[in-house]
Amino acid sequence: MKLSVDKLKNGLYPALLAAVVISVYFPILGNNFLYYWDDQWVVMNHYTGSGFTWRNLWAILTEFYHGQYAPFNELLYLSLHSLFGYDPFPFHLASLLLHIANTCLVYCCFRLLLEINTKIKTENAALVAFLTALIFAVHPFNVESVAWMSASKILVYAFYYLAASYSFLLYLKYGKSRYYAFTLALFVFSFLGKEQAVTFPVWMLLLYWMTGHSFRDKKVWQQAAPFFILAFVFGILTMLSQSDGKSIISQRDTYPLWQRFVYACYAFSEYLFKTVFPFKLSYLYPFPSLVGAPLPGWLLIYPSLIILLAISFGRSVLSNKVILFSLLFFLIHIAVALHIISLSRFAVVADRYAYIATTGIAFALSFYTVRIFRKKKKYRIVVVILSAVYLLYMGIYANIRSRVWYDTDSLKKEIRELLKERDDYEEYKY
Hints:
The protein is an all-alpha fold.
């Protein structure tokens, strides 16, 4: 009887997640392309329109294009255009299906991790994994990646990244070499979707730790070494793709290192806060100051606050494996978007970069929701109500924001007034 119930849950949870994603994101199926916000060159370009020829396929795999190197994402565009032309419906449907697949993979990964880890004990692995994936499914931070075709590379990289994570967890559980080989191949595929995949080897180390492996064990480092070598090569390719052909780092004017550190603290705080409390999200978060201009004094609050919190709560966090894992997961997957390394970005924060990172915080919220529900019976009604309100808020907000991405005019309308209040409005005027 228990086995049949488990089988039912194995099928029911993914089906529920798919239904929730569709109910939240169905508006994107009627959205247009954003002809004046990158779709006109990211989606509609000579690679997409040149068809399945050997020359075109070779060019997609070997050429950098406008600071981009995401051949698997370009292959998605090529396939869709070859079948349907530049009809936005199939393109948006593909994004919707990818988000459904990624949501189900989040569920599978966290369920398997909870079953084999040695750091966190729970009797409700499936429920915690389901709630984690549910928050990921409806989180408004993820709207940009799903609703904006030019950001579909996030969905592509995340699909292979999460598949690699699941394959690696199977390797840790069963020790079979085929799972290790699958993981390596999927990691390469993930990078060919987007450069954010370079974080995977560090994520592997966190999984090793979670499953009780010692970093003194040579096998851990021998197994991780090929991934770190590939990540290094991928990092060089990323910098080359964003350079001007003269140097490995972009030649654009950049902020000095100490200012980038301040901005990193600011960006980390913004990503973390908006992950827990998604509020006033936007398609564009301009830097508070231009390159070469003095930093606004209020920005210095952020590094001071982070240092103060680390000193005050560092020991408590280190002793709490759930919080430690969640914060490390979040930090690993948001680190490349924190501006420590100066790359070609013009926004201090971008919703799409938090696509995978949000699941770390979602896990902590889900874990403690289930624990309080089980341990504190008198608070069960309160827990259910607060959880329902929280999820309903995120789902409604995500649905509303998916409509904002209908076309370029609907997208830019929400930020025009904000930019007009800035002294440097002319620098951002479109």
